[in-house]
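User: Can you model how magnesium ion sits in this protein?
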Amino acid sequence: MSTVMKLPELFGSMVFNEETMKERLSAASYGAWKKCVTEGTSLDIGTANEIAEAMKQWAVEKGATHYTHWFQPMTGVTAEKHDSFIAPVGGGKIIMEFSGKELVRGEPDASSFPSGGLRATFEARGYTAWDPTSFAFIKEGSLCIPTIFCSYSGHALDKKTPLLRSMDEVSRQAIRILRLFGDTETKRVTAQVGPEQEYFLIDKELYNQREDLRMTGRTLFGAKPPRGQELEDHYFGAIKPRVAAYMKDLDETLWALGVLSKTKHNEVAPSQHEMAPIFSDANTACDHNQLAMEMMKKVADKHGLVCLLHEKPFAGVNGSGKHDNWSLGTDTGKNLFKPGSTPSQNAQFLLFLAAFIKGVDEYQDFLRATVAFPGNDHRLGAQEAPPAVISIFLGDELNAVVESIIKGTEFKEAGKRTLEIGVDVLPAIPQDNTDRNRTSPMAFTGNKFEFRMLGSSQSISGPNIALNTIMAEELQQFADELEQSKDFQADLSKLIKKTFTEHQRIIFNGNGYDDAWIKEAEKRGLCNLTSTADALPMYTAKKNVDLFVKHGIYTKEEINARAEIHIENYTTVIGIEANTMVDMIRHDILPAVSGYATDLCERAASKDALGASCKYETTTAKEIAKLTDALMGACDKLEKDLAKVPADPTKAMAYSHDTIIADMAKAREAADKLETMTASDYWPFPVYSDLLFSV
Ligand code: ADP
Ligand code: MG
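Assistant: Here's the modeled complex, given as structure tokens:
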């Protein structure tokens, strides 16, 4: 990446964006594309051909030789299949060719992507279709075309299709509400998302020596190092030169791809960092977050580093999450979660706020399920940010407003007796840019909600599909009611008051880590789904299936298929971790500790022959022998239990959670104790202090 290039020229230089389209397409084709994006009309083949030709020419000028439909199957990562542009023209010569048909539709063999049973084997092919709302870009010599991925029967096989559906639906319902407030201009309401991405960077050479990191992305063993994050000196600390060079390279790579990478800083744990982009529409944010995760890994490799996106690479230090900042914005430039400056704007804000609070309360179990997978179990419900119980933090000012409305009592800040909706102005509600509440899973931060339960490695699509759809449902209910109203002002006030009152239990402004809160939450009847095994069955609870089917986001088959994929994935991941553990115990740890104990015994014998004391050697050797037996026993049990995983997916998930994970904890306990007793030379792989302070 050339650093001579100025940032404005570098930014988006690898993206076939709107400006480039304007430059390179005829006015008619550009207009057709624009209409397609803003109004959802379809592209005719003539236009598609012209766009394809322009895209190809642009890509070839930039050195691309291939094109690929770039899609997001339910694996949670992106997939691509590269075709070169070459077409033979006789005489051993080729030309570079790319047609509209190839642009708008590709046909990868879909049989090896998870479909949750949606694709019968006779129908192994899926099709991909260009998502014209997301720009094509060049990555490593290939023109990448963001696409949706469906089966021939039309079932969505990816994470993009339902996201687009949910964005349309929330827009439709939000506009109905805006019309009630006299807004006649807004044509589109956009779900806006800014995902903050955490990650770890470690040295590649050390990484390569750890089978667990290579196979599972996290350490399965490792005693607590003498120093972890206790000094709290890493958070926002000065960035080390090697990391700074990485971040610079990453920024430039992302900027060229049009990703609005904005903030970078050190995080709480040693070797932990964060990158945050400027928010964009949810679809672009999702594409860009996938690209960012991919580039974080690739750029790290160039720097002799490895970027770990796992939620919990190291026990005992903070894990990594992803904060999903979400709001709704109009095409006229208004943020619907921004408290306004007039009574009417405030009434509208309070109605959107009420819809959000009601939705999160009613679908807390589903929201929890969207962030449920093995990696995230190490964070949620495991004494780490945030807890597994979903609640909403409003901040003192907004909470006072809500309470005043519920109680109809004195509202202190404003100095009035009651705050009348649509009559009074709200007090100033500051944007929360501080660390005031880091423990809330869903925090209002001035003009957006920050959903903090996402894991660092996961696609942000699922949680945002849920937020959009839940919001669409509540707005629809409100619109259905208020559109019939004879006295809008009075009915609006009543509706807001009623909604706040009925769903107040989901609001919590205290410390989410506090044990007392968990008890209180249970009293309030909130869900406490502490593990994936508890949370995933909620995915297909009747009310949740009904919600998504009603709004046309998933068919019943699609949502069931998704649940099945997540459930099977759980058992698969735990199985891989357990097998890796067995492998490392048998091939690395047991031989190493046995060798060390034997050497100690030999040394003891030599010393004994001299009549010298060999207390250290004998006590250590004995202790190691005891622990070695314990480790072997734990490993044997783990292996035996692994052979007994039930065939039924839901039973297998519960079994993996209850039995396999408990076995793994036993084995780890013995191994970690052995690590602390074994001479460094003998220990078969780098330990935590090496890994965490390597860069
Ligand atoms: P903090 O770092 O305190 O959490 P920031 O203001 O830096 O807060 O925002 C974090 C993320 O939220 C960024 O990605 C930012 O672009 C995004 N963001 C800001 N405003 C909005 C909004 N209205 N809707 C969605 N995301 C937003
Ligand atoms: Mg944040």
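A couple of observations from the model: The chain is about 50% helix and 15% strand. The chain has a mean pLDDT of 92.
User: Helpful, thanks.
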